[in-house]
Design goal:
It is a multi-pass membrane protein. The protein is built from 23 helices and two strands.
Length: 458
């Protein structure tokens, strides 16, 4: 057993250049992952026209990738608790990139739907795994801030994709312009695979499975790059030994409360977050706007995604994460209804921008939060399983929201979204634990020791 323990030493080390390189590489992978997530939504009206898809089948096109994400999020993240974070990470990248590339050459709607489902196996698994990986790599005192910076790089994908779609859908170079968006979305694996040697395995995971020597080697490399400043040698005190815990730990009294809270949250957050991002072109089309105009307004609205993510950086370590989520959800409910009500171009773009800005303060808050509330041994499985519920709901969401949109209009649709956000606020506010500024071991392993005794997992 390493003494003092790896996790406790990780918590107290300063931020190094290696930490920052890891953040950039993970951010690049998430950039392309998010680019892929929004492809069908951004191109919804374009693909409907290209393949002559009737309104009754639009929901199937939009939901296919999300149903794949549901399966992949459970499978790949459970695998990550057994084979390691890095191996699962690279497998996920390869899966979604290959199938997204093949989807670019779809001859018909059926082919596209099938390969969007297959790409979704990887797309849905990457984000929760990155939440887990980043939370285990970064020191406790600035974990939230550096994760928010990483997500800001990710969310640059949405306006980039919006403006690329606006520019490419009317072009034809060797093949239809929309197909090039799928090709671009598949490039993430090539870039990240070329840099993967920089990514270490999670030292916390290595320690949790008894591979202490490997964990020590990675920790030593971090320390080699640490700034040589007084205080870097701060002794570790009150360390909590990592325990091998069974999966049913998720349903002990303390963790059952967290698990129920997160499952309810993931079911509801889909309406607010993906309900806007994937359906906004169709919402704008329902207001009588052309495809080109809809994509322009959507692209301007999407600028709020990276700006909202950037705005979260200074607050994630100052305000309790759960209250960041609750406050941002309230703003999404308000701006969503205002977006649905207005028909003025300036107000459409303004409320769309404010909605996406709020939604990424919301997103960063909860992605950091969900990776902090489970012990290392089952963290990826727990987070991936919970996140899979949001992918399942994202697959079902078009079948719920599109009929409301077509029958009653955008205001009614966003009223449904607002209702989901209110329930979410109650759920997180009442059941969510406090995590800001605390080590993962203090939030988790210490709770297990208190509940089940010091010999659990021995």
């Amino acid at each position: 057993m390493s003494t003092p323990m790896v996790a406790a030493r990780l918590n107290q080390m300063p931020l190094t250049r290696w930490h920052k390189r890891i953040a950039v590489i993970v951010g690049i992978s998430l950039f392309f992952d998010l680019f892929d997530i929004y492809l069908s939504g951004v191109l919804g009206t374009v693909l409907t026209s290209a393949f002559h898809i009737p309104k009754s089948e639009q929901a199937l096109l939009l939901s296919s990738a999300f149903l794949g994400m549901f399966v992949g999020s459970i499978g790949f993240n459970a695998l990550a608790d057994h084979v390691g974070r890095k191996a699962a990470f690279l497998g996920i990248l390869s899966t979604y990139s290959v199938f997204t590339f093949i989807a670019a050459f779809s001859p018909n709607a059926t082919f596209l739907i099938v390969f969007r489902f297959l790409a979704g196996l990887g797309i849905g698994a990457l984000l929760p795994l990155c939440d887990v990986y980043l939370s285990e790599i970064f020191p406790a005192h600035n974990r939230g801030r550096i994760m928010a910076w990483t997500y800001t790089l990710e969310f640059c994908a949405t306006p980039v994709e919006g403006f690329l779609a606006r520019a490419l859908v009317t072009t034809h170079f060797l093949m239809a312009g929309w197909r090039w968006l799928f090709v671009i979305g598949s490039l993430g694996a090539i870039i990240v695979w070329s840099l993967q040697r920089i990514l270490p395995e999670s030292p916390r995971w290595l320690e949790s499975v008894g591979r202490h020597q490997e964990a020590e080697q990675i920790l030593a490399r971090f320390l080699e790059e640490a700034p040589r400043e007084p205080g870097n040698e701060t002794p570790v005190t009150d360390a909590v030994e990592p325990k091998r815990v069974p999966l049913n730990t998720l349903f002990t009294p303390t963790y059952a409360k967290r698990t129920i809270m997160l499952w309810i949250f993931q079911i509801l957050q889909t309406f607010g977050y993906y309900g806007f991002g994937t359906l906004v072109p169709l919402v704008l089309a329902s207001k009588g706007l052309t495809i080109t105009t809809s994509l322009t307004y959507a692209a301007v609205s999407f600028i709020g995604y990276p700006i909202g993510s950037l705005l979260s950086v200074p607050i994630v370590e100052r305000i309790e994460r759960k209250w960041i989520v609750v406050g941002a959800a309230f703003c999404m409910a308000v701006f969503g209804i205002l977006f649905g009500m207005t028909t003025q171009p300036t107000l459409i773009m303004l409320f769309g921008f404010l909605y996406t800005l709020s939604s990424n303060i919301f997103s960063n808050g909860y992605h950091i939060f969900q990776a902090e509330i489970y012990p290392t041994a089952v963290r990826a499985t727990a987070v991936g399983t919970a996140y899979s519920l949001s992918r399942l709901m994202s697959g079902l969401m078009p079948f719920i929201l599109l009929p409301v949109l077509h029958a009653h209009g955008a205001t009614a649709m966003f009223s449904v979204v607002a209702g989901a956000m209110v329930l979410l606020m109650i759920d997180v506010g009442a059941l969510g634990p406090k995590t800001t500024g605390r080590s993962l071991e203090d939030v988790n392993e210490r709770v297990i020791v208190q509940e089940q005794g010091p010999n659990i997992g021995v």
